[in-house]
Amino acid sequence: MxxxxxxxxxxxxxxxxxxxxxxxxxxxxxERQKYLQDSIKQAELALEQTQLNTESASSLINDNQDxxxxxxxxxxxxxxxxxxSNSVGEEQFYTLENELIKLKFSNKGGIIKEAVxxxxxxxVKAEDGTEVKVDLKLLEDEKNRFEYIxxxxxxxxxxxxxxxxxxxxxxxxxxxxxxxxxxxxIQKYTLxxxxxxxxxxxxxxxxxxxxxxxxxxxxxxxxxxxxxxxLNETFEKFYTTTxxxxxxxxxxxxxxRGDDEEEEEDKxxxxxxxxxxFFNTSLISKDVPFDGGNFEVKMMDEDSDDIKLLSTTLxxxxxxxxxxxxxxDLFIGPNDFQRLKSYNNGLEEIIPYGRxxxxxxxxxxxxxxxxxxxxxxxxxxxxxIVLIFIIKMLLYPLMYKMLHSQAKMxxxxxxxxxxxxxxxxxxxxxxxxxxxxxxxxxxxxxxxxMPMALQMPIWYALFRFFPAxxxxxxxxxxxxSDLSSYDVFFNLPFTVPALGSHISLFTxxxxxxxxxxxxxxxxxxxxxxxxxxxxxxxxxxLMFVVFFNNYASGLTCYMFFxxxxxxxxxxxxxxxxxxxxxxxxxxxxxxEKPKKKGGFQxxxxxxxxxxxxxxEQRSNTTGKNTKNKGKRK
Length: 633
What we know:
Helix content: 40-55%
Number of strands: 20
Oligomer: single chain
Shape: elongated
Strand content: 25-35%
Radius of gyration: 41 Å
């Protein structure tokens, strides 16, 4: 190697030696590393010992728990009989769901603990006053009971106190089994794929030696605390109750306005339904009906989160030597007419459309026609206006006759004014002569009543339709956020009895338009015979503001636009259709016609004559009595 290579190797050697000297740990560092390694080993040993102790403790706890459970089971043997072992356990939850509903089950009692309706929401008010939509749930109240009462050994054993073993079956179904030696209780739920319906079976097997021999039916008890689901609590209370149906009879229900109880002992019952304003939970028997029942509704306090408590007791037929299951359907969902009607057992009657002709109009005329219009028009409010337009056009011929009669009476107003002046001191005589005048010219003062009378059934049917049909629930229109509830134009800082703490703009507009329509429509009418009517006709709309202020805005919207259409029809007809000169000629021709005796007006005229004679007799009698008193003095 040459000189340069030797120098290079020497430098490398020096660097290596220097690095070794620098990086060599001191005695303190060597001692510290040893201390750390010893600490790690001690920690590992301690951890291993802790794990061993934990496993031993856990095993001991389990052993003690098993012993405690065994002791508890022995103690409960007197109360639960063969189901003592099922009275001890841990609650577990399971889920079935489809696109419409999500069901939460509990193995304690084998019951549905909660049902979430995915396509519907509940509106609640936040602390800042804003409205927030949350999940709408049924059957979720912890106080609910859904139980079978088993008479075993002189004791009443409730299935709600038993822990069932769960078994998931094929498809969207789940079974809960409580085994007790040779006997068992099996509950099976199967959720339909695209429905709110649950196929539900209960089977009591091998219990013939445990159930009292004189028992021929098992008592089923259902306590259902119904939550407040709507903002308009007043109407939700009115439409919340228990409905039930006896086989071969029309459905019946408990009172909606207060506490009530109905006993249907020894009757075959097809179904029972706990109904909110727009939702229901119904239990429907399949092949074999329920054997009698008792139904009770209890109003809850105003400050309660619940609106009502529905208590139901049903008899489940039981044969000691049979293992047949008792089949039922559970419907947990909205009060949708078509879905409920598909059961073909009258379940759709729980929707409070009305029980008389008005209910028939709602079910089979207004509802299908409204839904047909809704296929082409998405806004429910616009559909209401279109519905009004169609009804008004269909009734326009009658409206025309009413306006024509009013126009004739207006043309006779000068003659009536002269008659009023002539008989100003004798109102009954004036009224009788007025009736003669109407008869002479062929004018009927009742000619305007027919259109109103024909509209009354439709109007009253709609009065029941809007707060009952779920299609309007939470549907907005203009300033109204929910056509099934009242519209809030602004809130009052205080509460007015009967009126509430808000002002409904639809109601105010209806009252104003009604007053204007009444003024325009009756300004040519003579009311001197009964002056009080002149003020009553204006007072009535103002009085009804108190009632309709809390009513469904769908109805007050209908009322306002209906009155608006009336005003338009009246003004257009009187201004552009009627000819005053032509009407006078018609009256003259009618006057020249020979008049037939009899008829309603003639009878009315005769009645007024008799009334006048009676008044004159009373007046004469009063005069004579006054004279006689004067003579005695």
